Every structure is written in C-alpha cells, then in structure tokens.
Amino acid sequence: MSNGWKCPKCDCRDYETDTIATTGSGWSKIFDMQNRKFTAVTCVHCTYTEFYKSSTSTLGNVFDLFTN
Fold first, then answer.
1. Closest Cα to residue 34, out of 52, 59, 61?
2. Are 23 and 34 in contact (CB under 8 A)?
3. Mind listing the pLDDT tens digit for each residue in 44-68?
4. What InterPro entries is this protein classified in (predicted)?
C-alpha cells in the first residue's frame, strides 16, 4: 500500500490494513473453500473501508479445502 493513500470520505491519511478470505460461487461455495482473498484498507478516523483483490495460490486453496 502506498503512503499516498487518502480516505475519499474524510481526507484522513491514517489507515489500517487487514486480509480477508471469502468463498466464491459454485463448488467453492459448496465445499466452503475460501479461494478469494482481499486486502481491506480502513480509515482510522471514519472507518471507511476499501477492498482490493489479492492473488491466491493453488496450494493455499487445496490446504483450505482439507482444513475446513
């Protein structure tokens, strides 16, 4: 994440990041495979949050299938 990020709602430049995983549709939903990863960027002042899609690995998806 670039240091140039600015909240589009309140213009604050302070933020926190986190990673979330979600299921897609079809077979991944049936088997509860969380094969979609996102980085969440949240403004520390107003809590506005933006999500940015991250890449996933095949090995990570297989591991997720067997650990759910």
1. 61
2. yes
3. 999 999 999 887 554 444 444 444 4
4. DUF2082_NA-bd_Znr
Q: Give me the count of residues in the chain.
A: 68
Place of tokens 């996933």: 56
In this predicted model, what pLDDT tens digit does every residue of 12-54 receive, in sequence order?
999 999 988 877 655 444 555 556 788 999 999 999 999 998 8
The encoded tokens of residue 4 equal: 């140039």
- Is the pTM value of this prediction over 0.70? no
Two tokens, residue 44: 């520390």
Q: What is the dihedral of CA 32, 36, 39, 40, to 10 degrees?
A: -50
